[in-house]
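User: Run a structure prediction on this.
Assistant: Running it now.
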Amino acid sequence: MIVLRSEDEISSIRSAGRIIKATFELLRKNVAPGVSTIDLDIMACREIVKRDGVPAFKGVRVGNREYPANICTSINDVVVHGIPSKRTLKDGDIISIDIGVKFNNYYADAAITVGVGEISAASEKLLSVTERSLQEGIDKAIAGNRLGDISSAVQKSVESNGFSVVRDLVGHGIGTALWEDPQVPNFGKPGTGPRLESGMVLAIEPMVNEGTFTVETIDDGWAIVTGDGKLSAHFEHTIVVREGKAEVLTA
């Protein structure tokens, strides 16, 4: 069931989004060679709690597994769900950071991909194209359009630049739960899917691979990597569908 949120509910989601934005600003300043991903996790947790939020990913259960960290830190060929550890960042790496926050019993979710030190021109292009595809999707998230208009816009933007969109992982609705209906694929046909209505809150999140769109899960049961070992980037915003232009709640 797709829920239309009231302005009071959207206000709480927006507040969660502001906490995420502030946390990203902190982490961007600290992503550097020699910094470990567990350092980033600790920084993020402190910032979220300081602002009266709750890290939404900690303890999330999938099957019989419980996510052990506060954020996701996915390096290079890791698409999503990388668990923070003592691994240190190296010059030339790219790292995707995914953050969920609960505030006043409502959730927001967003992701960025950041270069570590000096990165290659190919990596720069991957990040730029992925972030641009997110904006292309957001531009279609207006009342009266169809869900497939978002999906198609992302796919067209990515594939026209020679990259591929992950098919096994999708965006989602969000509100009183971290994952709600509808699913928001990053591929599809325009004019298909549910009609978008004002008050729908969606997490749109292109996951874009340098090579093949195929992915696989590693032995820890969480991290998902590209099927060919090439790079992947991930950008995400929580938005609310409006008349005329979507409102980004995590920007």
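The chain has a mean pLDDT of 98.
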